[in-house]
Amino acid sequence: MTQKLFADDAYLKETDAKVVAHTAQGGIVLDRSIFYPTGGGQMGDTGQLDDLEIVSTVKGENSDIVLVPAEGSKLPAIGSAVHQVLDWEARHRMMRLHTGLHLLSVAVPLPVTGGQIRAEKARLDFAMPEPLEDKQAVEDALNALVAADHPVSEQWISEAELDANPGLVKTMSVQPPRGAGRIRLVRIGDTEQVDLQPCGGTHVRSTGEIGRLRLGKMEKKGRINRRMNVFLVD
User: Fold this and answer.
1) Which segments of the chain have a pLDDT < 70?
2) What is the DSSP string of 128-157?
C-alpha cells in the first residue's frame, strides 16, 4: 500500500521515495507518493521522477498509486531510491479549482450528479431541471465566499458515522471510498461552517487562495442535468 503523502500535506512539492514494484502496463509503484491519482473527479498529477517524465497517475491494486511514465521510458529498478517532483503549477491550479467546486455546491444548493477537475478548468453537474434565473448572481455569491477567506481543514470520521449522516454526501454519482474504516471530511469555515463533505482530493488552505472565479456557459446534459464550468481568473 502506497503511503499517500498528499493526503497529509497537499503542498509537498518534492520528496524522495523507493520503487517497490512495476505494473504489467509499465507503471511505477513507490513506497510513498506526493502524486495524487485520478479519482473523485480530480485528474492525476504529472511531474518528474528523477529524469523520467510522469504523464499521469492512476490507482492500482491494493491501494497502490501508479505513476505512468512517458511511453518508451526505461523504468527505475525495483528497490532503487528516486526523487519525485510535482508539476506544481498544474497541481496548485487543481487545488484552487477543487476547493472552488466545494463553494459552488454551496452557492447552488442542488444535488451534484458529476464533476471533474483539470488544471485548465473544472465543472460540476447538477440535478437542475430548470436553468438558473441569474447566473451572475451565483458567480457573485461564489466569489463572495472566496473573498471571505474561510479556512479549509480536514477531519476524519468512521464509516458508521457517515452512514448515520448521509446528508454529508452531496454527490449522487460518486461515493466516498470505503474499506479503510474511516472517511476524510473537508471542512470550509471555522466558527461559521460554510461546507462539510467527504472528499479525498487536494485543496488549498483558505478560500482566499483560490482567487477570482468565472462561470462559463451552462450546458444542458440530459433531461434534468445541467453542467456549470468554472475557470480561474488569473
Assistant:
1) 170-180
2) -SS--S-HHHHHHHHHHHHHTT-BEEEEEE
